[in-house]
């Protein structure tokens, strides 16, 4: 067992500066990350040694126990170096949040083994677990999109839970050591390829009762953590908004990096087949102004959502449904704003942006992929928010 208290701990005010120091190294490896189809071990080690990996983890397990705003600072800044690394950091934070709702015994098992505590997951109930009479579970399933599983020592796998007679009991996540699953090398994609989101599979894996947590209980503030006055505030974040924000945050930094790159490489270029110099061209000036404003809007929306999540977590209160609906919409609006902004820059910047060596192109691919995540689909978010505003069933419990 390792000494979890020896891990680096950071203050909220230092998060952004710590992350900024990592940008050059992450940026230098961004294209290699995409080529390798996973986050490099060196990046994972830097996230660990800097304290950013444990930012959303309880202090007793070596984390810094900060806030959703700190999470946004960390992940959005890391994404200015490497969007794939930032995406994986964001989901690791999400999984620390879920582990915080599991039993003390499960937390100790997960955080007392290995030297870097990076837990991958597929949170949605894609698998099937049968609860035996002794309370243990037999888990089977195939889970695609397990981002960052190459560096993980544990996995959280979502499953529908049935009794031995076939009656459905619950849905939730089960913690499984990485050695109990098969990792499948199938992540060949057009965007976020560097996240290493390969599929995993397991067959008849026995999971003890203490390594299960109910997803509806997390989403509706019904796990024991919500009733404990001395529980870490980070675990009292409203489940739906928090889980959505964890996966959407990297979009902010990816768009910001694309804007920075545009301002470095485009001004001074001739606009071929015209008499224009790019930075003197009115059309480019308009496109740039609009794109920069869209990125700024996305940042304002997202930080507002982070502050709302933190506020209700500190007060230990359940968010009103209208706010939950709004944030469900926010997490879809933000990646779309960021993607559309970068698409404007990519297009107005000319054919040089087609190069697979262009950071603008890389970040556009990653933003397009993020916008296609089921939790971040714009039309789904809009429908759910509209239903909430009309006072009807939102049609999902993940809100």
Please describe what this structure looks like.
With 399 residues, the protein is α+β, with helices and mostly antiparallel strands. Helices cover 48% and strands 14% of the residues. The chain is built from 14 helices and 7 strands. The protein has helices at 15-28, 30-36, 41-50, 68-79, 83-99, 104-111, 215-219, 224-227, 239-248, 250-265, 282-315, 321-348, 359-371, 378-390; strands at 119-131, 137-143, 154-162, 168-177, 182-184, 199-207, 212-214. A 7-stranded mixed beta sheet has the order 5-6-2-1-3-4-7. Strand 1 (119-131) and strand 2 form a beta hairpin. The protein is globular. The two termini are 37 Å apart. The model has no long low-confidence stretch (mean pLDDT 96).
Briefly summarize what is shown.
By secondary structure, this protein is an alpha+beta fold. It has 14 helices and 7 strands.
Write the layout of secondary structure elements.
Layout lengths: L14 H14 L1 H7 L4 H10 L17 H12 L3 H17 L4 H8 L7 E13 L5 E7 L10 E9 L5 E10 L4 E3 L14 E9 L4 E3 H5 L4 H4 L11 H10 L1 H16 L16 H34 L5 H28 L10 H13 L6 H13 L9
Parallel strand pairs: 1-3
Antiparallel strand pairs: 1-2, 2-6, 3-4, 4-7, 5-6
Largest sheet report: 7 strands, mixed
How many strand units? 7
What radius of gyration results from the CA coordinates? 21 Å
Mean pLDDT: 96
Distance between the termini: 37 Å
SSE string:
HHHHHHEEEEEEEHHHHHHHH
Low-confidence stretches: none
Helix content: 40-55%
- The helix tally amounts to 14
Basic shape: globular
Proportion in β-strands:
5-15%
Q: What kind of oligomer do you see?
A: single chain
> What would you call the structural class?
alpha+beta
Biggest sheet strand order reads 5-6-2-1-3-4-7
């Amino acid at each position: 067992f390792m000494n979890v208290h020896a891990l680096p701990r950071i203050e909220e005010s230092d998060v952004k500066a710590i992350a900024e120091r990592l940008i050059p190294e992450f940026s230098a490896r961004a294209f290699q990350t995409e080529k390798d189809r996973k986050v490099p071990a060196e990046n994972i080690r830097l996230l660990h040694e800097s304290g950013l990996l444990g930012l959303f983890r309880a202090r007793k397990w070596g984390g810094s126990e900060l806030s959703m705003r700190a999470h946004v600072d960390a992940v959005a800044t890391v994404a200015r170096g490497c969007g794939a690394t930032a995406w994986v950091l964001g989901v690791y934070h999400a999984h620390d949040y879920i582990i915080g709702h599991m039993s003390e015994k499960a937390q100790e098992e997960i955080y007392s083994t290995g030297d870097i505590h990076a837990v991958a997951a597929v949170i949605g109930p894609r698998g099937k677990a049968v609860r035996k009479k002794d309370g243990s579970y037999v888990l089977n399933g195939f889970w695609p999109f397990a981002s960052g599983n190459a560096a993980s020592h544990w996995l959280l796998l979502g499953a529908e839970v049935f009794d031995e007679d076939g009656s459905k009991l619950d849905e939730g996540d089960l913690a499984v050591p990485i050695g109990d699953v098969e990792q499948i090398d199938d992540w060949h994609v057009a965007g976020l390829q560097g996240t290493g989101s390969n599929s995993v599979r397991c067959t008849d894996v026995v999971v003890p009762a203490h390594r299960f947590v109910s997803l509806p209980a997390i989403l509706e503030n019904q796990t024991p953590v919500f009733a404990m006055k001395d529980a870490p505030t980070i675990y009292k974040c409203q489940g739906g908004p928090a889980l959505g924000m964890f996966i959407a945050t990297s979009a902010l930094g990816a768009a910001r990096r694309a804007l920075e790159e545009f301002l470095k490489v485009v001004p001074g270029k001739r606009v071929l087949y015209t008499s224009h110099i790019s930075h003197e061209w009115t059309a480019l000036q308009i496109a740039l102004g609009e794109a920069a404003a869209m990125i700024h809007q996305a940042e304002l929306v997202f930080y507002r959502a982070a502050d709302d999540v933190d506020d209700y977590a500190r007060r230990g209160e359940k968010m009103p449904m209208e706010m939950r609906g709004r944030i469900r919409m926010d997490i879809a609006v933000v990646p779309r704003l960021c993607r559309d902004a970068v698409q404007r820059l990519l297009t107005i910047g000319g054919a040089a942006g087609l190069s697979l060596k262009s950071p603008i192109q890389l970040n556009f691919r990653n933003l397009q992929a993020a916008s296609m995540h089921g939790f971040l689909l714009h039309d789904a978010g809009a429908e759910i928010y509209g239903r909430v505003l009309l006072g009807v069933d939102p049609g999902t419990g993940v809100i």
